[in-house]
TrEMBL record:
PROSITE patterns: ABC_TM1. Belongs to the binding-protein-dependent transport system permease family. It comes from the Bacteria. This is ABC transporter permease subunit. Signal peptide: none annotated. InterPro entries: MetI-like (IPR000515), MetI-like_sf (IPR035906). It is a multi-pass membrane protein. SUPFAM superfamilies: MetI-like (SSF161098).
Amino acid sequence: MSLIADRNLPLRTTFSLRRKRARERAPTALSEIFSTITIGLPALAAFALLWEVAPRAGWINALFFPPLSQVLAVLWEMIVSGQLADHIGISLQRAAIGFALAVVTAVPLGFLMGRYPLFERASDFLVQTLRNTSQFALLPVFILVLGIGEASKIAITFYAAVFFLLINTIVGVKSVDPLLLKAARSMGTSDWDLFKKVIFPSAIPSIVAGARLGVKTSLFSVIAAEMLAAQSGIGYLIQNSSLMLETDRMYAGILTLTIVGLVLNYLLVAGEKRATHWHGSGESGPN
């Protein structure tokens, strides 16, 4: 049954059908992700082989680019000692707090701006001004105002994520099918039920897409903040190892960041695909 056909059904039946489709297509979304990873393994293996051979053959200076096996050995030592888990946990905690605050702020504000044009016109210029100011340019300001403690790092992750969520929420609210809104209104639906049963479910795919971008940007931002002013976290590990010329530890930290980023990315891809299928679309953007 197509989306157009859905419009002729009662509101509750329409959303029930969409939820059923999401459950049916979720395994397909996961299989697509695993297929993408599997196809890319040979290229990854070739890169790993080159990483191992190039320093050992003297093509590049092993002091600045140690063999992959040496990096993996140091990485394993850090895993066994628990040091790596501590750094990962601290960075993820900072990024998660900043992202959660961004969600709490951006999603309600996005619904207001998307639903009420007058409020959007009054606040849009301020939002666009702040959105076009780089979080990295403001990092020294956050440190000066909030200090080098946790507050400045959480603030930078919040700032990095909030506008992705805000803009995508606004877009999601504005893209709600007008026929669904009219159908709900004709049935005497209250404003709260309209939001809960029509606007919010229809905006979920766009919000999830914004969350995917926001999570990644939050993580990258907290890493940058940790490199500048921190005594813990993955960013601190990378920067401190670089300054001490412990390049094997530095690359171990970079590899850890890559793995964490990949895991988060594919978790969010799976969530985005599920949300997009729920919405009734088969497309959800690149992985």
